[in-house]
């Protein structure tokens, strides 16, 4: 049964790595510049461990509760990324608890709670600011014109270490439009990196569009379905 669940996993991972390398080459970049976050939401811990045995070390979870359950039983050298919208009442569960990077800082109230909890636990947290470039009502994130005000608002939050931006592009087959969205994120990243030397990551690109994202400058892609197959929601 377990062997059946894992059938194709190694091939999927190899294919994603091959695509990343190809896109990086076309963009005049090195594959090593692109970090792969394997999005393991809804995926059982045993399958995550199988992916770990294939060499993956960075996994992304949407829900705090799911992250907590998996992190208890999986290898301790996994770099856990939280990529879903984070509720303020869940912040206390992630500080000093194995989260390497939060991708979804999207509002002042969350920043305030992160700063508060980090101070309480004498901790720091690496975060990405989430962008909503296409202004989709169904998605969280800051509009481009809101970023400067937000950066000013959190300027004194010394426990939050800003590492860059994350964005989720619209789900569309219009690759020109996708490339435009990604290019806007890259332009903002490049501009702000001059002000914030700690910026390291531009997290954009998912299973359906990560190659286009890499072509436009992404250095971190979040790939789930292309690795683990279609989601099974309980």
From TrEMBL:
Cofactor(s) for this UniProt protein: pyridoxal 5'-phosphate
Alanine racemase N-terminal domain sequence ranges: 13-230
CDD domains assigned to the protein according to its UniProt record, in alphabetical order: PLPDE_III_YBL036c_like (cd00635)
Keyword vocabulary terms for this entry: Pyridoxal phosphate
Modification type N6-(pyridoxal phosphate)lysine: residues: 41
Superkingdom: Bacteria
Pfam families the record matches: Ala_racemase_N (PF01168)
GO MF term list: pyridoxal phosphate binding
Family assignment from sequence similarity: Belongs to the pyridoxal phosphate-binding protein YggS/PROSC family.
Function: Pyridoxal 5'-phosphate (PLP)-binding protein, which is involved in PLP homeostasis.
Descriptive protein name: Pyridoxal phosphate homeostasis protein
């Amino acid at each position: 049964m377990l062997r059946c669940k894992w059938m194709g996993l190694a091939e999927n991972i190899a294919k994603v790595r091959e695509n990343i390398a190809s896109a990086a080459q076309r963009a005049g970049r090195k594959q090593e510049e692109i970090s792969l976050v394997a999005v393991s939401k809804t995926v059982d811990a045993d399958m995550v461990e199988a992916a770990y045995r294939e060499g993956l070390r960075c996994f992304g979870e949407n829900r705090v509760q799911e992250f907590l359950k998996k992190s208890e039983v999986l290898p301790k050298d996994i770099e856990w990324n939280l990529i879903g919208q984070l509720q303020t009442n869940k912040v206390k569960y992630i500080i000093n608890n194995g989260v390497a990077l939060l991708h979804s800082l999207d509002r002042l109230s969350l920043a305030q709670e992160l700063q508060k909890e980090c101070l309480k636990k004498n901790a720091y947290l690496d975060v990405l600011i989430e962008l909503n470039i296409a202004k989709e009502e169904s998605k969280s994130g800051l509009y481009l014109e809101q970023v400067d005000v937000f950066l000013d608002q959190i300027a004194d939050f010394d426990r939050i270490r800003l590492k860059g931006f994350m964005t989720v592009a619209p789900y569309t087959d219009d690759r020109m439009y996708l490339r435009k969205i990604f290019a806007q994120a890259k332009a903002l990243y490049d501009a702000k990196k001059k002000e914030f030397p700690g910026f390291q990551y531009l997290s954009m690109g998912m299973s359906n569009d990560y190659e286009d994202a890499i072509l436009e400058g992404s250095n971190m892609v979040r790939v789930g379905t292309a690795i683990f197959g279609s989601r099974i929601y309980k």
